[in-house]
Specification:
CATH superfamily of the largest domain: Response regulator
Shape: elongated
CATH class of the largest domain: Alpha Beta
Strand order of the largest sheet: 2-1-3-4-5-11
Distance between the termini: 79 Å
Largest sheet: 6 strands, parallel
Radius of gyration: 24 Å
Strand content: 15-25%
CATH architecture of the largest domain: 3-Layer(aba) Sandwich
Order of helices and strands: HHHHEHEHEHEEHEHEHEHEHEHEE
């Protein structure tokens, strides 16, 4: 069986270069990397994970903690991180809090502290100070996606600004009767995303001196079927229906569009609908939305972790408090327009 010395000899490089190239390290020239990969493929050489761990103390594995695996936001964010990590030769071990949320203590106090993961990435999970302290003691770098975390690096969009921008778009079109269907708080919304997005809506309405009617406010889960049911109730009374609805997530907005059409209403001629996310189905529905490039967030966070693992800051301050603001963008499609002339 071929070994690392055989690969080095065939490629005409040192064993150290072979190790760095096959480990995905950046400081290897493209030409050398190609030679090493070609030699390894010709000889059928696969680097031993256990040998690498013994030699470096690293497992080339990243632990990922998230509330759900089977929901669009989390799975898309995970996909972005996975693409980057696999490209650089890293495995992933993910922990799904949705299966058994009561196991969270064991995940953060036991599983993540074993030597099988080098760093930790969380998606929409707010670490407690004790959880972060345990990671610091083990010198495991950490980055959280979804909101600010005291004492740690985090990457997140501004949910308040997103809700405000969505509502301001509807106001700029001339709408004065604007409803909001927000999300329900839960263990998968630990950063109060639904509340922040609604606060943005309220701020935009207040700034424009527009009335917020109780009947135009609703809460539901981030799902198409629940968005459908809530919207039917909101638009069901033609004497008191809004001419526009800001939905705090695209999946709610998809249900809202279907509900409006089932009520015989035209989107956007009779009612305008806007969401947040830029879900992969948003273009199909023609949904105007606030894009947050979810896959890009996963990619960016994974790159940050790799930079930490390969950089000089790992020893002294493995985790420091720093927030990376993720940009948002208004993406206008066909679900929003000026209100009917009779309602202006």
């Amino acid at each position: 069986m071929a070994g690392i010395f055989d690969v080095a000899k065939l490629a005409g490089v040192s064993t150290a270069t072979v190790s760095r190239a096959l480990a995905g390290k950046d400081h290897v020239s493209a030409k050398a990397r190609e030679k090493v990969e070609a030699a390894a493929a010709e000889l059928g050489y696969v680097a031993s994970a256990s040998a690498y761990t013994m030699a470096t103390g690293r497992a080339r594995n990243i632990g990922v903690v998230l509330p759900h695996v089977d929901r669009w936001f989390f799975s898309t964010c995970l996909l972005g991180a996975e693409n980057v990590l696999i490209e650089h030769g890293y495995d992933l071990t993910f922990y799904n809090l949705g299966s058994k949320p009561e196991n969270r203590d064991r995940i953060f106090s036991e599983f993540l502290l074993r030597k099988r993961v080098d760093a930790v990435l969380t998606i929409a999970v707010r670490l407690s100070q004790e959880e972060l302290r345990n990671l610091n003691l083990m010198k495991k770098p950490f980055i959280g996606i979804g909101g600010p975390i005291s004492g740690a690096r985090s990457l997140a969009m501004d949910d308040f600004a997103a809700g405000k921008l969505a509502t301001e778009h509807l106001i700029a079109l001339g709408h004065t009767k604007i409803g909001n269907i927000g999300g329900i708080g839960g263990f998968d919304t630990e950063f109060n995303q639904p509340l922040l997005r609604r606060s943005g809506y309220e701020a935009a309405m207040d700034a424009a001196n527009l009335e917020i009617k109780k009947s135009w406010i609703a809460e539901t889960t981030f799902s198409i079927d629940h968005g459908y049911r809530v919207t039917k109730q909101m638009l069901g009374d033609p004497r008191n229906a809004p001419t526009a609805i800001f939905c705090s997530a695209d999946e709610i907005a998809f249900g809202a569009i279907i509900a409006a059409k089932d009520l015989g209403m035209r989107v956007p001629e009779d009612v305008s609908i806007i969401g947040i996310d830029d879900h992969e189905m948003s273009e199909f529905f023609g949904l105007t939305t606030i894009s947050q490039d979810v896959k890009g967030q996963g990619e960016a966070a994974a790159k940050m972790l790799l930079d930490l693992l390969n950089g000089p800051d790992l020893g002294e301050a493995v985790n420091i408090e720093k927030r990376f603001d993720w940009p948002i963008e208004l993406t206008v499609r066909s679900s929003t327009a000026r209100p009917p002339a009779t309602h202006r």
